[in-house]
Amino acid sequence: MNAETTRPAIEVRSLRKKFGRTEVLRSVDLEIPRNSVFGFLGPNGAGKTTTMKILVGLLHANGGSASIMGHDVARDSLQARAAIGYLPQAASYWKHLKVRGVLNFTAQRYLDLPRPQLRQHVDETIELAGLTDLVDRKVAKLSGGERQRLGIAEAWVGRPDVLILDEPSSGLDPEGRHEVLSLLDRLRKDATILYSTHILDDIERIADHIAVIDNGSIVAQGSIDSFLVGSTALYSVGFSGPLFGAVEALQTEAWVDAVEPETDGRVTVAVNDRSHAELELLRSFVASGVSVTDFRPARRSLEDIYLEIVGADDDDG
Amino acid sequence: MTTAEATPLPASARSRSTGLTRGLGGLTRAEARRWLPWRTAGFIVLGLGLLAALYANWLIQPAKTLTELLYPFFGLWFALLILATVAMTQGMVASEISQGTAAWVVSKPVARPAFILSKFAALVPIVVVAMVGIPGLAARWVFSIAESEGQTEFNAGDLVRLLEEPLARNDYMPLMDFDVHLGILALMIFLILVAAAAMVLLGCLLRHATAILVAGLMVPIALVVLANVGLDQQVVSLTPAWAMDSMLDGIAGNPVSVLGPSIVATLWTVGLLGLASWWFNRREL
Prior knowledge:
The complex is a heterodimer of chains A (317) and B (285). By secondary structure, chain A is of the alpha/beta class. Helices cover 38% and strands 28% of the residues of chain A. In chain A, strands 6-7-8-3-9-10 form a 6-stranded mixed beta sheet, sandwiched between helices. The longest helix of chain A has 15 residues, at 302-316. Chain A starts with a helix and ends with a helix.
């Protein structure tokens, strides 16, 4: 395996961008492994779209560098763009085009294929995206979900190595979201997908890596498993009867970060030392006279983690 | 939604071109297909309508000299062509930028200059054929008929009916020298191309359609002023106003200089398009 094939699909180093005097990106570093689905999270105005537009060559960075499949997006823009399929937040097409026309136009920009093969290739993409019944419909007449599926099909029709999708499921009903996510799930084995969204459930369902951007800086980045497990482990303890001061006793322990009694006869305990917790946690409850009914590790939701990261950063700021 | 799988494409299927004009041919074809029917119809109606209006005017008040006939003819024709060019090109780039379709196109592996040049390249054949060629040849035909006494084979249709009256009263249109006529048409084409290139540049520089329209209208006015303000000929010959000056000479019955003014106008067209491409390349979308 040579260095080129092990190199990340997208590398971003100290990327900076200003609009006038406003610093939109302060120093963004991203490393997106090949064939990963990379969720890009952050509040509105955090810099997600700006980062994506720089990658696609629509905006110019004021500092730092970015490369797609080894091609610098500023110096080697054409080759970088040849490796990208892009779906913007609000895709615009020429009004006279129909679904097939959009896909034909885009396919011709990426591929040098004889006409019959190109047509076959476009037909295949149409089928893949479930657009067969819509090929002769004008783009302006598509519903939100249909339009997003067209957008993804259009991003994919040139068979790029990288798909950059800016909020592909925003504004869709649950069925539309499901269709879009299913489509992405099918494309993941053939491409690296960088995917921004506000919908954390979508990320949890489809992404294998995530990064959180806030105020123009990446505040967290890693595999989704490392996010969900994190350095703090959670345990959920079920009990019946009173707690007899068990909560207060646990809060004095150095290996405990937080204790939160729930309303349904459970206590959630966040610990910073997993092995210590597994030895001591149950014993502490029992020593306090609590009647424990069950004891199990708990999984934090991405939403909790996200709010923790963004909230902590906002507090700092 | 289906469960179809994507067939892998061979690496050779991917376009490898990296030149400054990557995508130019495809974009030009797409642009031409997009506007061809509207532009062709618009320009032909404009050109033939103008001819009919001028001919009707001549029937009412026949010109006594060549200059008297041709000045209003070419003057009005050229003014309308310039206005049509400005009107039809004013949103060519700016509206694509504001509607997001420019970003849609250039997010693909397309050289940015190709996006700009395709707008111009798709316009040129229409300008040459529909705006100048067809009305120009039609004008030539009308003048020829009018001068050729006894050509009764044209006594059919509206145009010939209009011709019958002057023929009957033995009052013919004078005929311009064919070379001069072609020279004027050629200069007209080059001037229209300068105007179209200027509109492309304005579309890159300005954001509002009204501002582009107003600035675009200043271009022909500037050409007319430069040609008539009495500047040193050496100064005029550095600008497209030389073509305007030469065209006015031809209309007045003087020898028309085509080569020099055409070269200067072409250089201006290339320069304006180069500037537009450079600016668009830097522009954020």
